[in-house]
User: What shape does this take?
Amino acid sequence: KNGIARILFKMYENKMVLLHGFIKKSQKTPSKDLAIALKRAKTLR
Assistant: This one.
């Protein structure tokens, strides 16, 4: 697949927690992928 790999993560208790990884083809982060990461980040709070 062509595109750029992106990893969204959050620091939690001095650790990097992977929230979501995806391949994107444009400059803008797709809202669907951002929503997935934000939903997962809320579970860490």
Observations:
- The chain has one helix and two strands.
- The chain has a mean pLDDT of 93.
